[in-house]
Write a structure and sequence with these properties.
This protein has one domain. The protein has 16 helices and no strands. The chain has helices at residues 2-33, 37-56, 62-73, 77-114, 118-130, 134-149, 154-177, 182-205, 215-249, 251-287, 291-318, 331-336, 338-346, 348-363, 367-392, 395-420.
Amino acid sequence: MGDLRQVLRLALPALPVLAAEPLYLLVDTAVVGHLGAMELGALGVGAIVLAQLSTQLTFLSYGTTARAARLHGAGRRADAVAEGIQATWLALAVGIVIIGVGQLLAGPIARALAGPGDLADAATGWLRIALLGVPMILVTLAGNGWMRGVQDTGRPLRYVLAGNATSAVLCPFLVHGLDWGLDGSAVANVAGQLLAGALFLRALLSERVERKPHLTIMRAQLVLGRDLILRSLAFQACFVSAAAVAARTSVGAVGAHQVVLQLWTFLALVLDSLAIAAQALVGAALGAGDDKRAKVLARKLTGYGLVFGAALGIVFAALAGPLPRAFTTDSVVLQEIPHAWWFFVALQPIAGVVFALDGVLLGAGDARFLRTATLASAIVGFLPLVWISHVLGWGLVGIWTGLSLFMVIRLATILVRVRAGRWAVVGAST
């Protein structure tokens, strides 16, 4: 019971932090969905691009947690916080570059995903506004990273909820109250991101550590980040391909895919609360030189993930009828949703185990293996099926069959790796 209490102590505050952004996107989807199928589809195209940008740079969070947790476990808290300082410098620099490049490429990217026309034009407008919040999205990732590493999950909870609550209140007011339409959704998104990022910056500045950039530390973060970036590229290739195929299938299909994908993302991050606890506890155990405890935690987290995922699957199976109508009343979209819904439900127990053990290996700094396993799962499992679906007209059934195969392959590879135990390398550095 002691280990379960420790996991819950870290996972429960992390859960609303992880769920806050996808929960806001669910609110955003519901608000925009009542504008019509075209606006909902445009949000789907724009949101997947923005999500992939932040996903590509998750090393600012996960990599920083892995490095900070080991230092914290070794009794070096100031050095753990210093990881956050350097990650924040990286976040600001990369975020500014993304704003500039994104303004130039927003149109071509939207047209590449949705084809030329009104859908791509609407997605371009949303994306150009939403990109202005990217630096603070990345600052928030870095802030969550170092705070999780030192096992402080209270402040990230308050900061992220404040930002997302601001967005959730502004979204319906701007979209419908002021009649800004789809642009109001993007402005609300940016406002919340600016507030959350500012709170994380204030917390970092209150720490008594050196604030100057250090290229040596940033270079070490980028070495770990390289493998996490390549891993993220595999996810990007999968989900961008899925969005592109859905957009080319029909307006109803892309709208339905947006609804189910946002629910998938929401539950993935809910399940990832176990991974956050795993990262902090496993990293600290290995930093303190206790590889046996790290392996015990891995076994227990496998069971916790399976139970948690199965429970979520049961809940969302029961909600198959009423829940989709909360997001849209468009009959064309509602007719398409069941083609993806039951895949989404059935995958939850698998996802629970995969995400929990991802956290174990990320806490151990085993990013190279995760990179290779994820790339292989995408190349062998997801990508062939999703593009065959486009050619043969399988629609959402083909897309979500590909996602299912992707998750099953990831499950098999990660279980083999954890059982072998070679990931449990002790020491204060990854």
